[in-house]
Automatic annotation (TrEMBL):
GO terms for molecular function: methionyl-tRNA formyltransferase activity. The lineage of its organism: Bacteria, Pseudomonadati, Pseudomonadota, Alphaproteobacteria, Hyphomicrobiales. This is Methionyl-tRNA formyltransferase. The keyword Transferase applies. It comes from Saliniramus fredricksonii. It is an enzyme of class 2 (transferase). Residues 94-164 form the Formyl transferase N-terminal domain. It comes from the Bacteria. The gene is fmt. Keywords: Transferase.
Amino acid sequence: MRFAFAGIDMLAPAFEALLQCGWTPHKLFTRPCDGLVDFNDRVITIARQCAIPVQDTRITPAEIAALADDGVACLVVAGYKWRVTGWEGVVPYAFNIHPSLLPEARGPFPVIRALLEGRREWGVSAHKLAHDFDAGDILGRERFPVADSDTLDSVMIRCQFAAGRLAARLAQDLPAHWHTAEAQGPGSYWQRPSDADRRLRFEAGTRAVLATVRAFGRVETIARLDGHDYHVAAACGWQEAHTLPPGLVVHDHGGHLTVTTRDGFVVLTRWNPLPLHQRGRQGSA
């Protein structure tokens, strides 16, 4: 099947799986990325290896019509932030791969909240494109368990693996999956986590602080210390009785800051005084 792919590296294994199943690529639609949290290097490399054009501006209905004129039968969307419209009645198939078990957790980047809530199972879903984000009929799902040791990075990589498996399954007989797709029905929409969600609350205790750091990972949490914000990507810690107030820096060893919590200590092992958007690709303290 001739297809176009719209997305970034977040779910790039879906792109690769379709190629491995013998589908023929025609064009890549991607979007600008910051090179810190979002990336599109991998999908662009794949496109260049396949000698297909790359576009990093929003796909328009006229461009979808042009795809149809060129024989494209399917538009596959994965990690593409713009709404895609104008495909119905123009190309036979258009579906999105989303990193949640729909209909729960529609919306951007739901994995962080899943970790914050301590979900024990997660996965990805494929659905027909619809007017509302992530609301179209379900073509399939891939599930996996989530352990206490999982982090944002590990769950996102497992979502990538699951996306590849799901895309491969759909590629075997997309018309059949399309015909038997199930309506989602009522679900939930999760907003992108806010800066308030990223704040480390040392008064909540060591476990709560480490759980927040685990959930945000490279997106980073925010620690307010001595009147300044520290943007934290990694930390460790322990519970220990003490009489100090929470949020106090009590030790600095090679840039690793030890901070009191209500019931112990947290060591900020990877942090930066600047937020991500003020930095380049190079790293943190």
